[in-house]
Amino acid sequence: MPLKDLPPDARPREKLLARGPGALGDAELLALLLRTGLAGKSVLQLAQELLDEFKGIAGLLHASADDLKRIKGLGGSAKRAELVAVLELARRALAEQLRERAALDTPQAVQHYLQLQLAARAHEVFAALFLDSQHRLIALEELFRGTLTQTSVYPREVVLRALHHQASAVVLAHNHPSGSTTPSRADEALTQTLKAALALVDVRVLDHIIVAPGQALSMAEKGLL
């Protein structure tokens, strides 16, 4: 059913203005971005198809412009550009927050930021948040990439990048493409190795966060640091 044929209180735009964005489902919010559907397919149906294809909002926000291009109805550049722009705005907003406030004061923001950056990758990525003496974000760097099951991380390179940024602390991070955030024995061993290496140059490891679509685990919160 086209949006114009829905009752006014069921149309996403009117519903958002009357009741706030929290009253809308994911497909309704996405429909507002897409604006129009296709012949024989409403914008709400197209929105739901996108959510199904990318396994929810988190997966969709991590989709590249090329990923979106394969969806019928997104072959043109305008809608794809808008969706990619939404992701970039979300990343920049979270990065700005982390630059202004200590990472330890906003653990949920740190996890959300890392999820946006890493969670939907098809391969394993190891990254580090480099922080200043007040634990505010200096930079996020993806340092190593691996296969679906493992990655090789070189402590010397992590130490060199910390020195380059004149960081006082780091938050380590990597993704689990399998979807589970449970740390492996290798994850625990790597964390301790990096913690010892960075301690030699007086850089603290504050946390090691494992992300997957829709979830994140803090090794510090689990007592594994």
Q: Architecture of the largest domain in CATH?
A: 3-Layer(aba) Sandwich
| Whole-number tally of structural domains | 2
Count helical runs.
9
Biggest sheet record: 5 strands, mixed
Low-pLDDT ranges: none
Mean pLDDT: 82
- Helical fraction equals 40-55%
Order of helices and strands: HHHHHHHEEHEHEE
Shape: elongated
Going across the major beta sheet, what is the strand order?
Answer: 2-1-3-4-5
Short description:
By secondary structure, the protein is of the alpha+beta class. Helices cover 44% and strands 16% of the residues. Keywords: Hydrolase, Metal-binding, Metalloprotease, Protease, Zinc.
Question: How is this structure best described in words?
Answer:
The chain is of the alpha+beta class and 225 residues long. 44% of the residues lie in helices and 16% in strands. The chain has helices at residues 12-19, 26-34, 43-53, 57-61, 65-69, 77-100, 107-118, 155-164, 185-199; strands at 125-131, 137-145, 169-175, 204-212, 215-218. The chain has a 5-stranded mixed sheet with strand order 2-1-3-4-5, with helices on both faces. A hairpin with a 5-residue loop joins strand 1 (125-131) and strand 2. Keywords: Hydrolase, Metal-binding, Metalloprotease, Protease, Zinc. Pfam families: RadC, UPF0758_N.
